[in-house]
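I have been asked to look over a protein record a colleague put together. This is what I was given:
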Amino acid sequence: PCSCRSMGPLPTSSIRLDRENISSIGNLPRLAEIHSLYLQQNRIEKMENLDSFPNLRFLCLAGNCIQRVENLQALPHLSTLDLSHNLIQVLDTEELPRSLRILDLTGNPCTRQEGYRDLVVAALPHLLQLDSQPIHGNTAEEEAGGGSSSSEEEDEELLPELRIPFSVDRDFLVDLPRELAGRARRRRRKALEEHLARLEELRELRALVLGPARG
């Protein structure tokens, strides 16, 4: 059985696995429903198997033991990446998705490289914020009219609230596909019930309009 510690309905768009003493990201089935993944404060040493989350928009790996940025090219929609307080010595900007708008590498040795900030900004044309500091004059800001027209929905996508994800045990992902399938079945059943209820309403309305059936 699923061992999640969820409060309320299971949210299918976010997973929270922080502070679970996880040492690696396993090879998982494709989980296209997941948009936000929280893995901070674990013991993860390598960024791997993230292609299981092709629609990921928010990824937090802060406070781990990661030494290099890699295997992110399979995440074309990634908007926010938090890699703060890891062990990244040298940053390879070619490994960063061009879709990034918020990037945090605070606390990594690579931030002390000469020209670090200019290098990152030049590599990421849509970046709005680096290490909690705003970026000015980039493509994303120009497209948004200097940032004045940013919507609340866009902000929520870039920085999802911590109350949205749910806490789970490490073995949760084994049962996640089954949970999602169950939710899909429940949605179909509810839709059918609503449809049958609507048909009954229509029959009652028809009876009122046409009067009693003549035998």
Q: What stands out?
A: The chain has two domains: 10-135, 171-214. The chain has four helices and seven strands. The domain at 10-135 is CATH 3.80.10.10 (Leucine-rich repeat, LRR (right-handed beta-alpha superhelix)).
